[in-house]
Design brief:
With 327 residues, the chain is α/β, with parallel strands linked by helices. It contains ten helices and 14 strands. It has two domains: 199 residues, NAD(P)-binding Rossmann-like Domain (Rossmann fold, 3-Layer(aba) Sandwich), CATH 3.40.50.720; 101 residues, UDP-galactose 4-epimerase, domain 1. Helices cover 39% and strands 17% of the residues. The chain is globular. The structure holds uridine-5'-diphosphate (UDP). Uridine-5'-diphosphate (UDP) binds next to helix 6 and strand 8.
Length: 327
């Protein structure tokens, strides 16, 4: 029995990670509060409902399942929300992670894979962001994730907690088998909102800002297919189990797409145009986030072969038309 504790396993990325873990011969044990996750998405292993702020529950879960490692996805991750309510982010993300890390150390579970973000880099115009770029987050979400990265380093020094930190760029797409997919309530992410607008499930998409210093005036992001992203996590887990030491990896492809380019691509895939209006900037958004992604490819052997915009939108569109979860 090789259990891996997956916090946030009922969420978008966590549920895809559970599927990949199962395929790799592990048993994913989902711990999720269901505040943003969906129980329907827990399909690949046991489920425990609870909050990371509940330390007694964490101790019980570690005792019950004796996981060989933790994959820590559970977090609040919305830029707009964190600007309005930073306390929510510091409590939920930072205090929750502290509880989890302390419980893992107490249980002797010392391999830890952590979902961090390119939002820890902040707004650094015209820079390709690699793992050595200084981190200057401009919102509470990025700041909360950077704090957890620091926490992991301190716990390694004191308690030998080995960790792989993945700094995600923008994640899109869905499981091509349609077992799990992206479903947020409320939805704030570009690709699902765009698909909703295309088939009339909601009003026109608002492009947040057309006056950025980019070729077409809209923000540029580096999009990764969720299945490629979780592949990297399996490689990261093996990296830890092979005793290769703690390491930070960016997960992006190095290709940047503006909001308008994403809209154009979705027209090409769906053959339908996206109704949109142009609106003001969204507070907290960076102009351009593009990954220097060579390290994960060179050292982990990561191959993000599904991460073309066409493939991501094709898989997201298929899920969009067929998949959903109920609470
Ligand atoms: N975006 C937009 N309209 C929307 C949602 C997002 O123009 O309704 C833009 C947003 O400003 C950013 C990009 O799309 O430049 C990706 O945003 P998303 O919320 O998907 O991810 P984030 O970059 O915040 O992690």
């Amino acid at each position: 029995m090789r259990n891996v504790l997956v916090t946030g396993g009922a969420g978008y990325i966590g549920s895809h990670a559970c599927k990949a873990l199962k395929a790799a011969g592990f048993t994913p044990v989902t711990l999720d509060s269901l505040v943003t996750g969906w129980q329907d998405a827990v399909k690949f292993g046991p489920f425990e409902q609870g909050d990371l702020l509940d330390r007694a529950l964490l101790d019980t879960v570690f005792e019950k399942y004796e996981p060989v490692a933790v994959m820590h996805f559970a977090a609040l991750s919305l830029v707009g929300e964190c600007m309005r309510d930073p306390g929510l982010y510091w409590r939920n993300n930072v205090a929750g992670s502290l509880n989890l890390i302390e419980a893992a150390v107490a249980a002797g579970c010392l391999d830890f894979v952590f979902s961090s973000t390119c939002a820890t880099y902040g707004d650094q115009d015209n820079v390709v962001l690699d793992e050595n770029t200084a981190q200057h987050p401009i919102n509470a979400y990025g700041a909360s994730k950077r704090a957890i990265e620091d926490m992991l380093r301190d716990f390694e020094a004191a308690h030998g907690l080995r960790h792989v930190i993945f700094r995600y760029f923008n994640v899109a797409g869905a499981d091509p088998d349609g077992e799990v997919g992206e479903f947020h309530q409320p939805e704030t992410h570009l690709v699902p909102l765009m698909l909703d607008a295309i088939d009339g499930k909601r009003d026109a998409l608002t492009i947040f800002g057309t006056d950025y210093d980019t070729p077409d005036g809209t923000c540029i992001r580096d999009y990764v297919h969720v299945c490629d992203l979780v592949d990297a996590h399996i490689l990261g887990l093996k990296w830890l189990q092979d005793n290769k030491g703690s390491r930070v990896f960016n997960l992006g492809t190095g290709a940047g797409f503006s909001v308008r380019e994403v809209l154009d691509q979705s027209h090409a895939v769906t053959n339908r145009s996206v109704p949109y209006i142009e609106g003001p900037r969204r507070a907290g958004d960076c102009t351009k986030l593009v990954s220097g992604s060579q390290r994960a490819m060179d050292e982990l052997g990561w191959n993000p072969h599904r991460s073309t915009m066409k493939q991501m939108i094709t898989d997201a569109w298929r899920w969009h038309q067929t998949g959903h979860y109920e609470r």
